[in-house]
Amino acid sequence: MGKRQCPPCEQGERAHRMVRRVLRKQVEGDVAAARRMQEDVGVNEDVEEVPGPAALQNEENNRIDGNVNMGLEEGEIVGYVQGDAEVLNEVGRRAAHQPIVEPAQGINNPPQPQAQGARNLPPNDNEGPRLVNDNNPYDNEEEISALASREELCPTCREEKEKAYFVQLPLLPQLRELYKRPSFYNSLQHRHARVREPGAHYFEDIYDGSVYQEHVQGGFLNDRNNISLTWYTDGAPVFNSRNYSIWPFMFMINELPYKMRTRRENYLMAGLWFGPHKPAVNIFLRSFLPDLRKLFRGVDFTIADLGGNATRVRAMVLAGVCDTPAKSSFFNFNAHNGYYGCTFCEIRGAQVHLPARDDQPQKRKHVYHYQELLSLRSINTYEQLARAAVDSPDPVLGIKGPTALHLFMPDFLKGGAIDPMHLVTGVSRKLLKIHFDSKWSRERYSVRHHMGEADRLLLLIKPPRFIHRRAQSLELLHRWKASQLFAWIYYYSIPIYKQILTPVYFFHYLKFVEAVSLLNSNVVSAAEINRAETLLKEFVRDFEQLYHIKHCSINIHLLLHLPDCVRRLGPLWVYSCFPMENLNGLMLANIHGKTSVDSQLCNSFWKVLCQNRRLHEIPDGELKEFITKRRKSVKIQDRVFQGCYSVGDYSEAVANDQIFVNALREQHGNDGPVSLYFRLLKDRLLYVAERYERDLASKSSYVMYDYRGTICYGMIELFIRTPCHCGEAVCLCVTRHFAVIRQFQIVDYFRIPYYADFPLKHIHRVVQGNNLHVVPVQHLKTVCVYIPVYNQIFLARPLNLHELIE
């Protein structure tokens, strides 16, 4: 039993319920009945009149790119918000009528908060924000503070009321700043510069997915000046002592190359929600809906790459990603642990009763049985169900009502991606608990008795530098980060599980790893998607029999939708939340003190947005060279070619090095003096030679490389620099730097029974060979993960080169 509320608090909740009933009557068109209900309870001042049935009708002005949108109109309040309802109603009413703020630029004068219920933080250059509507009563920080602090304690029960508010950041000034950068517009043409074979059926980015392709041929994205956006949001705790969190709502520009679009300085931030609960989604989203509508219709921007000419740019929100609980809130669906909780299909799910343990009461758990044929959700069906949900006290097939996402996305159901970071790591964490937790030690699938051996093998692994966290003990599984779980899934788990799992469980697990590895590759072919789909269906189907239905949570079910997600939006790395979660952490690191948290975050975000252009404005010289080297976080010694640098000091060859010098002379005919070094930075990956003695915690000497047209694996002994005799004042020769590599030969692959023709491609068992290969450093492909298990050596290459941590 929960704590009984005092009468005024109960009265407030009854008023909330009446507000929703009034809104429902207004949507039905029965305005007279709504007015009578308002007069009966005296809530006339708290509820705005909602347009009648037009709010849910297919009106032309609610269409985005030819698709019908329904649900929210200007001035409408939809959604129930827990906490201080009076303040949140004030926020909701004024969010749609915020004064327009003139945009400006500047890093020296960052944006200052405007208090209008929903705070509007425009960037400004030389002076404070100028409000066009100076008559707005909430135009300064003091008045919004007074509003937010009004009646902080209930006058009867003296319980503190929980506060929540949001900050809206105009999008147009942010885009204006981006287009002022040199080479930014040219980078947006990345998708047009790709070379693809005619009729090729493979996916290498979001541009190849069906959602993007629908708007290319003669459509919105056929224009080179137009861009598309992917939204992201997630909660991040702010304080340790209070249960408050921030929810940034950010946009990523899809047309930028992946490495650029995921950098901190290239994100757009539309708003920040701050409070103890999840956002009141429809109120929050509607605050930046006017900016998105302006961008869809077109805005003139001054573009540096076009000589400073004003060019019309249009933008549309095409896709979005967040974790499963947040998606339920933003889609206005039932939670994943309720009936019809899947946002992709209409599977109902079931409740199973768990046996009581240790004198605890019996518990229930929501699970999802495997189904061969799933009824997928569609936008047309959604509209009908959302209308029905408005009139129903209960959700209709999991839909609680309309969502504001439907106002600015052509199809938010198809564009809503599964977050592979939370999904794949969630399944992996579940399997680790099932296999090693003492809770399940009596089950047939438990390998708890092998935990010590698995720990020993795991802790022997020294990861390469692109994996920033070493593996922790399985006893500390609750502390593992997502990056450690990813390394376990793709690299460490297969060689270790091979030694301790029975064949039926090992090959079942291998299907999971093989499927997600295929879908997360650099390039995914249509045939590989079909193969991954078959493997995932078998994995989910057999999971119930091997591990019991009680473990079949929403994550196991969502694996069935991963292949379709790749067909719609491209490989899994395109919409992984790894870079966004990292950005959340960087934002929280900029908070110093507990006052004006929103201002601190917005100021730091704007400074980062501007600093890239400021760097380009610094004239060439020692200062710019110093800043550039500091950004690379290693000691750059020599530039080999664009994106490739020697790191550390050079040394002369000694007697022990003669075998490597002789190999260079035999294979490349160099007879002059040479210099040796041990580290190379290439394409943001650090290659470290085996003879580098100071690198004790990691091992980045095992590589994949191209030797005379053949892909090989080996271990870098050292790097050699040869003198140049070209006679040029500035030497541009790239063949002066070589890697001496001891070759390793592949002797075995991991294969699934009945799929012997399709081995796991990214991990191999190898043995050391006798050959020394001397290759130019431009032939190095990537660093590999070295995994010693008993007396065997396994090498695993990265699944893709996009997610490598810089």
Q: What does this protein structure show overall?
A:
Residues 106-117 have a biased composition (Polar residues). InterPro entries: Transposase_21. Residues 99-138 are annotated as: Disordered. By secondary structure, the protein is of the alpha+beta class. It has 5 domains: 1-78, no CATH class; 81-326 and 403-419 and 601-617, no CATH class; 333-402, no CATH class; 423-576, no CATH class; 634-796, SH3 type barrels (Roll), CATH 2.30.30. 34% of the residues lie in helices and 18% in strands. It has 26 helices and 27 strands. The strands form 6 sheets. Strands 17, 18, 21, 22, 23, 24, 25, 26 and 27 form a 9-stranded antiparallel sheet that branches. Strands 1, 2, 4, 5, 6, 7, 10 and 13 form an 8-stranded mixed sheet that branches. Strands 15-16-19-20 form a 4-stranded antiparallel sheet, with no helix packed on it.
Report the principal-axis shape.
globular
Q: How many discrete structural domains? A: 5
Q: Assess the beta-strand content as a share of residues.
A: 15-25%
Helix count?
A: 26
Tell me the span between the first and last alpha carbons.
Answer: 51 Å
Beta-strand segment tally: 27
Unreliable spans: 41-83, 85-151
Helix content: 25-40%
Q: How does the helix and strand content classify structurally?
A: alpha+beta
What gyration radius follows from the Cα positions, in whole Å?
29 Å
The largest sheet is: 9 strands, antiparallel
Residue-averaged pLDDT, rounded? 81
